[in-house]
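Rotation project, supervised by the postdoc (A.L.). Task for the rotation student: set up a whole-complex structure prediction and record inputs and outputs verbatim in this book. Inputs entered:
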Amino acid sequence: MDTITTSVHSHHTSKCNCEDCFINLIASQHLAPMICDKLYNSKKEAKFKQGDTLVEEGKNIDRFLYIKEGLIKVSQMTDKNENRIISIARPHDNITLLSFFSSEKYLYTITALEDSVACSFPYQLMLDVIKSEKEFAFGILNMISFASSKVINNFVKLSSRNLRGRIAFIILDFADNIYKTDSFDLPLSRKEIAELIGMTVENVIRILSEFKKDGIINIDGKSIDIVDRQKLQLISNFG
Amino acid sequence: MDTITTSVHSHHTSKCNCEDCFINLIASQHLAPMICDKLYNSKKEAKFKQGDTLVEEGKNIDRFLYIKEGLIKVSQMTDKNENRIISIARPHDNITLLSFFSSEKYLYTITALEDSVACSFPYQLMLDVIKSEKEFAFGILNMISFASSKVINNFVKLSSRNLRGRIAFIILDFADNIYKTDSFDLPLSRKEIAELIGMTVENVIRILSEFKKDGIINIDGKSIDIVDRQKLQLISNFG
DNA sequence: TTGATTTATTGATATATATCATATATGTTT
DNA sequence: AAACATATATGATATATATCAATAAATCAA
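Outputs recorded:
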């Protein structure tokens, strides 16, 4: 288990060069050179192996994390001690955003689904910059708003579907929004799918098998193929 | 149907005097007198009758709303055209917060559950102040973060419970967090309870009747009494 | 007041989902 | 390789939940 502070992987400080990184964008355009340098110099870049924990729910917030490469899950313990996946995050997502301003502790556990690279900035410095730079604060407002409505939206959509509908929905979600192709490797175990859509592992497996038997998808281990997209869409829409 | 812009009820501009209003707090403490006046002068206070719509999902955002008195529901249409209640808002809640920065349209429909009073500020002015005043922006960040994590938390908690558990959970929630007493009038119809916790009306009614028969609650129409709080808590915790 | 419409209620039944049991496969440690 | 753990898979069954149908009660409009 690897966390960003104890990472043994190579991490080096370097000027930011991610074009789609909001932090970089605002910093380079609006920050005074001194502050900008300070921010860039405080940046840590860390590699994570699949399964590594980047951030643990309940721990004190010490850094502001940005996903540079890879795929990440954000999850929370229910009050009944089950794990619930809140969202799947991808490059350019600021994954600690939803925790950062509502408490001093991380609200969610963040785990690498693939080998991933994350940039991070120290909590206090980030806070200082946000407090002193209008553009930063406003941009963060937009991002946090967007991120939270996405999560809420997802819950609303999932909760209006039965299990077949949910499975169809998330398969299409992965295909359309993450991989942009109908053939991909599922980044989640069956158990994680269950935690993402709120059902039991057995039923996830069962429904995936049914979809396969019915010629809607092809699935072999983690590799998945959408065979009959129209039918899958129907199940997602009406199931 | 009444909306804030077309309201025929008395609304008058006056200095803000709500002690727990964040807008008022920051404005009076940190804003330059001119800006503060401008903000206060732009304030509208409007009364709403139970059932009135304050804000409609999909409409252009024109004002920033604050609940002064009453009880409010915030809801969203699912993509299957069912209504889902996202949260119940009370005095001092800034109910348009979750919409305000993520799009130009309201994301949620906002409806009065009781006769209520709402203050509001014009969209553009509010945006200008937030963009120009650091304290404002940061305070808003905290609020939005808090609000969204509350909504998400609620979804997580509900989704880990079966229907009896959900009903027990929301009864306790109303008693503990809204009315601070074990006897109160349910502000929601059976249908709205169903929309709040994601189940059918029939089952809401059935379970409420069961709870009554089992001596856990007393319910007569909308009036509700918690009789056996311990048992209700058990159902909420383990159901 | 009446009639009409929505809301609340209950029961019977079908369906969806979870649970339990067991088996196979896969991967990991020794 | 053996032993162990974990993930995947399938079937049987119990349970939870939705659906359908039919009333009753409450609310609203004329």
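Student's summary: The two ends of chain A are 39 Å apart (CA to CA).
Supervisor addendum: The domain at 22-158 of chain A is CATH 2.60.120.10 (Jelly Rolls).
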